[in-house]
């Protein structure tokens, strides 16, 4: 038992509103100007950035994938994203107007560290988002943006995922302000929307018992497929990673539109399809993909902002989550998926904090 919780993972899930609030706090001054932590890149240099490349592993990669949508939408800058261990070996095209962003909770993951140092050596500007003050990557990169999630003990990342997305959203708004791709009033409005997310996460957390009741009904199934579009896609990947990491259940994340290009062949009565469908432009599209898997016998679970009247079958299950700005929705939508993985792990008599074969920090290639 840890501080009233059965394990570190459930404690860290509970700490998520605070983790995000602390990460956002103090980053915006009275005039609405955003400030970053250790920024040894001048504003003039940042204004000339033509391309952003994001690298990371596992959950940190998924946070980077979420940020790509905000950077492209708010800053109108092309964004590439790659797994650190692939980026290193691919002869990437970098220049002094490229900003390479490494995302790493520990700041010690070797693959991400080498990716960043090679990017730096090739003349690109480097920035790291890290949860550990003075970590190797924080010392090496040109700029650091700290998440303030506090120490994360559980091997499965939860509160640092949400904090990483929060920090990267701040970076996107900072660049948008600097490059004037958004009006100051728009930046302010978005900061207000971002500041509302911790409370939305608290509301999601108040539904834990309900999420666990759904998780309990899913215990007998063989395989899980998580699907989403746009920012829902990295949430799908993260939901699948959490579940496989701490429950060893075969689970995959797919862009919902890809189903019919192969994965749908796997769907039968033993498969669960968890669809991330926040309100927004692609809501109906995701629900149309859900129809396709339901017709093939899958057990359907929807992550939605309200009951989708007319789009449900009687044995569908629902994870209700509060609605926030669509680009910020992964920070809320991931919560029931974390709870699903945690509940399943405990129900199967496993230790969610110490999954087999895994280390918290991977400092080898
Ligand atoms: O410390 P880092 O953020 O660089 O670690 C990256 C991954 O090893 C990490 O996110 C891993 O995927 C977690 N166990 C996921 O829960």
What's the overall average pLDDT, rounded? 94
User: Percent range for helical residues?
Assistant: 40-55%
Please trace the helix and strand order, writing H or E for each element.
HHEHEHEHEHEHEHHHHEHEEHEEH
β content, as a range? 15-25%
Q: What small molecules does this complex bind?
A: 5-amino-5-deoxy-1-O-phosphono-D-mannitol
Shape call: globular
What structural class results from the helix and strand content? alpha/beta
Radius of gyration: 20 Å
Major sheet summary line: 6 strands, mixed
Query: Which regions have little confidence, pLDDT < 50, spanning 5+ residues?
Result: none
Across the major sheet, the strand order is 1-6-5-4-2-3
Count of DSSP H/I helices: 14
Number of strands: 11
- What's the end-to-end separation, in Å? 34 Å
